[in-house]
Amino acid sequence: MPTIKRIGPYRFFFYSNENDEPSHIHIQRERMLAKFWLNPVALAGSTGFRSHELRNIKRHVEENELIFEEVWNEYFGS
């Protein structure tokens, strides 16, 4: 599960066996998890995060969307 970036308390990563899904990024802080689709950026699901924190995470995903997409495509070869 490659970690792509860390921003503050958040770890942005994807699982290496998820190439059958559209590009997305997982975000973890402690035991909380979220998943955002990348194109377009949209929340796919979350566990434990409050709505204000999800808005902040979404902003981070939007700001780094091109990097996340690039790493996704390099890793999965698409």
Total discrete domains? 1
Strands of the largest sheet, in order across it? 1-2-3-4-5
Which of globular, elongated, flat, extended, rod-shaped describes the shape?
globular
User: Beta-strand level of the residues, as a percent range?
Assistant: 35-45%
Total number of helices: 2
Overall pLDDT level: 95
The Cα radius of gyration reads 11 Å
**Head-to-tail CA distance between termini:** 18 Å
Order of helices and strands: EEEEEHH
Strands, total number: 5
Task: List low-confidence stretches.
Answer: none
**Main sheet properties:** 5 strands, antiparallel
Into which percent range does the helicity of residues fall? 25-40%
Structural class: alpha+beta
